[in-house]
């Protein structure tokens, strides 16, 4: 498999700018004008046409020919013909629900396993996990099940931070992930900080970006990974 999973899309540098070198590496073997499909379904308050235009503009210099999946007359055919599948962030429940209702979830998973490159961020990264149960999003719609693409054998928590503002009495992110791990002791969860990403090549996984990332599992103390190869076993 050939995946790049970002924690975030925007930064002070601009939209997807911080990840552009990694994006170029992801698609370096593809010819100019290679067909790419953008899945905008995580957008809720963001119009899907506008979302697609934003991503196409940000990736214009890559030479990809980007089509919004929502505009395809035959979404299955669009995915079948795509050299790159791009899945944007937003609300993970809406993203999963839309793909499941259209019968596209299995198509995306199969195409990535067959060799289509996959670029995702935030909700798009969550979607590659066994389930979406470690998303930060509110369940604003019923996706008819939490099972996701299952391209990874572990969970991701994008936008990971354990910040705890003074006076805030709610749980930290680490506490929330500990709740998940208590009820799912055999399933690891990698906290992916802003600016970080996972690069998946075949069965090899690497942490890229400037930050370390914590791995949560069961009742164990979180294990910290430095940028570089990552070995995670369920």
From TrEMBL:
Keywords for the protein's UniProt record, in alphabetical order: Dipeptidase, Hydrolase, Protease, Serine protease
Enzyme class: hydrolase
Cited InterPro entries: Class_I_gatase-like (IPR029062), Peptidase_S51 (IPR005320)
Listed GO biological process terms: proteolysis
EC id: 3.4.13.21
Pfam families (UniProt xref): Peptidase_S51
Cross-referenced NCBIfam families: PRK05282.1
Family: Belongs to the peptidase S51 family.
Protein name, per record: (Alpha)-aspartyl dipeptidase
Originating species: Achromobacter arsenitoxydans SY8
């Amino acid at each position: 498999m050939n995946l790049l999973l970002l924690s975030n899309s925007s930064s002070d540098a601009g939209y997807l700018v911080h990840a552009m070198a990694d994006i170029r590496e992801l698609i370096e073997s593809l010819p100019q004008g290679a067909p790419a499909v953008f899945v905008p379904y995580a957008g809720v308050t963001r119009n899907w046409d506008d979302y697609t235009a934003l991503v196409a503009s940000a990736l214009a210099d890559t030479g990809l020919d980007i089509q919004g999946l929502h505009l395809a007359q035959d979404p299955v055919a669009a995915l079948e013909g795509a050299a790159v599948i791009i899945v944007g962030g937003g609300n993970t429940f809406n993203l999963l629900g839309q793909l499941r209702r259209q019968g596209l979830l299995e198509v995306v998973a199969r195409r990535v396993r067959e060799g289509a490159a996959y670029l995702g961020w935030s909700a798009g990264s969550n979607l590659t996990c066994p389930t979406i149960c470690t998303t930060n999003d509110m369940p604003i719609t019923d996706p008819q099940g939490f099972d996701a693409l299952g391209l990874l054998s572990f969970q991701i928590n994008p936008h990971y931070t354990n910040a705890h503002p003074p006076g805030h009495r709610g749980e930290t992110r680490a506490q929330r992930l500990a709740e998940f791990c208590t009820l799912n002791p055999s399933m690891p969860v990698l906290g992916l900080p802003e600016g970080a990403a996972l690069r998946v090549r075949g069965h090899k996984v690497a942490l890229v970006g400037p930050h370390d990332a914590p791995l949560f599992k069961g009742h164990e103390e979180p294990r910290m990974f430095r940028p570089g190869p990552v070995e995670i076993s369920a």
